[in-house]
Every structure is written in C-alpha cells, then in structure tokens.
Design goal:
Elements (H helix, E strand, L loop, with lengths): L6 H30 L4 H26 L7 H27 L2 H7 L2 H12 L10 H22 L4 E3 L7 H7 L9 H28 L3 H23 L12 H28 L1 H5 L4 H13 L4 E2 H34 L7 H13 L2 E4 L2 E4 L10 H5 L4 H4 L10
Antiparallel strand pairs: 1-2, 3-4
Helix pairs in contact: 1-10, 1-12, 2-9, 2-10, 3-8, 3-9, 4-12, 5-6, 5-8, 6-13, 9-10, 12-13
Length: 407
Amino acid sequence: MARGWSFYRDFLPVVVIIGNECNDMGSLTLFKAATLQGMNNHVFVAYAYALATTVLLPITFFHRRSRVVPPLSFSIISKIVLLGVIGSSSQILGYAGVSYSSPTLASSIGNLVPAFTFILAVICRMEKLAAKSRSSQAKVIGSIISIAGAFVLTLYKGPSIIKAHTHLSLLLQQPLNFLKSEDASWAIAGILLTADYFLTSVWYILQVNILKVFPDELTLVFFYNVTATILSTAVGFFSVPNASAWKIGLNISLISIVCSGIFGKLMSNVVYAWALHLKGPVYVTSFKPLQIVIAVAMGIMFLDDTLYVGSVVGATVISFGLYAVLWGKATEEIEEDVGSLESPTIENAPLLQSLRTETSEKNSTYDNEGQSCGFIVPQDDPVMLIPVCLRMEPALFFPQRGTNLSS
C-alpha cells in the first residue's frame, strides 16, 4: 500500500514555504526603505549575517550537546564554506540589485529560479525527467505555467478592478514609494538580480547535496552563516571603508537589519534547509512565483495601489501552475513508494534465493517411506516457496540420520 496523506510531509511544507516567501518580500521591503534613508547594502548584509550567527551560536551549541549529530568531516566543511561563498555572493548581488530598482522587479526576475533549479537538478540527477511520466510532465508544465503567469502579472495590467484612493496618508506612502520607482537603473538591476537568482539555484542544489550526508539543518545553517559573515564583512570593509557608514541608529535601518537577521538569515534559512531535505529543490523553488503576487498584495494593502485585471489573471495562472507542480511531486512520491513495494525482494533474501535455485533445479520427486511426493517452486514468486514447502512431509525439512536428499 502506498503512503497516505501526511500533515508533516504534505501540508506543513506548503505552509512554511509560503510563509517564507512572505518573509522574504517583507525583508526586501524593509531593506529598500532603509536604503532610502542612506544605509549601504554591503553594511546591511554584513550586519544581518553577523546577527544571525550570534543568535545561532548558543542554539547550535545546546542542539549538538542534546542529541547525536553526524560528525563534521573535512569534505563537509569544504562544501559548507563553498555554500557560504555562493550564498553571500548571491545576497550581495541581490541587495545591490534591489537598491538600484525595487522588490517588485526582484520578485519578477525571481521567477527564473524554478527554471534554473529544475535544469540544474536534472543535470545533477536530483530530479527525474521522463517524457512519458505524468509526474514529470506535470512538474515541467506547472513550472512553465507559473513563470508565464508571473510575467503576465508583471507585464500586463488591463482594466482596473479596484481603484486607488487618494486619501491615504502621505506618511504611509513616502517610505514605500520605492515599490513604484520609475527612474531606477533597471538594466543594472536586472543583470545583478539575474546573477543573484542563478547563484540562488546553485545554492539550493549544493545544500541538498550536503544534507544527504550531513542531515543536520541547524548546524549547517550556523556554519553557513559563519562563513557568510566573514566573507560579507570582508567585502563590506573593502567596499565601504568609511567608518561612519557602519554606524546604525535607532531607525528603519536597525529594524531592517534585525528583521533580516532573525527572520531571514536565521529562521528562513533553517526552514529552507528543512524543506530542501524533505522535499527537494524543485519543490521548494516552485513557490518563488508567489513573490510577485505577495508584492502586488502589499502594494494594494499598504500603498493603496490599483488592482488590475492582469494582476488577477496572473495570480490565477500562477496558482494553477503551482498546483500542477505540487501534484506532479506528490504523484512522483506515490510512484516511488509503489515501485519500492513492487520491486523484487529476492535480492534482500539470499538464503531464500539459494534455496529456490537449489530446489527448482531438482524439480524432482522424493520418495519418503514408499510414497512419492513432488513440488515445484514458482520461478517468478519466491515468496510462494514457503506455503508450497509447508505442504511437504516433515521428513523433507527434518531428515532422519542417514537420509540422503542429494539424489
């Protein structure tokens, strides 16, 4: 019987990953607001990683003392260092791109992550791609639909459904006007964000590879943050030698650093590591197109933006694509469970295999006290050997002294 529905494996990952996407968009929003107040993006990344590492230090210490965890070999440490190089580089490029543009553009270009990740996962043999498999078809088609829906939402407006109101206070509008910035350097931002999201896909793939041999998400995230803190701080000091730029006051800059460090670099990375270990990189990245939906929703709620038909159509298309990917992944897991149950068990029972081979080669009769009795062992089902043999005379299994069974 195939595995049934599980809250832990089927429902919880959906909830926490969607929560992570909301968290990421909120962090980008606060970061952009902080950059408008003069905060440097290199300083932001270094402080956020340093805060996450500081908070994780005692948690990881007690975590490793309270349970049996796998040892850290040189190979694993090397991969974690490489993960830190890729992750910190991705963050530096990404936040630089957002500083040139807006979180909305970042979420739009982020729709490339599922495509990048799927291609890399197939190349690294982490995902199966069979043209005739329904699960593979659903994952591919669903990914394409989600990406297409995100670009529809980004590029097509259409008639307005809910118009903006002009009575919204300027106090709320001004800190968030960057979401509607039109004079930013979009070309530079596009290049930086594309490089960021390609490295993000590589980061997902490498993290899954590490978790296969080192299944301790919390320790992995801690040492990753340590590496990223060292690298981002070195890059920050080199890029921003002015000491005054590293002074953070009690303002939006401090709030953005705390939120990004605690909810982004710490909680978000732990959740992503857990989900990657449980469901794989393609499943996790299939939720990325939701970021543009979240960005539009934030614009409507906090900026009093106008809701257009294109936003509704794009969000609907993304939902269908996401459902197709989730269905394909669930179907693939069911197929794997059924396949493991239907696979021959003969390899796992060498004694039974030898007994079957030995008896089937004879396929003869045995005369016990003048009575002939024969049996045939089914070639295609070794399990049937037991009920067939139980019908034989006891002397076949417990021969008396001097009885010759080899004739």
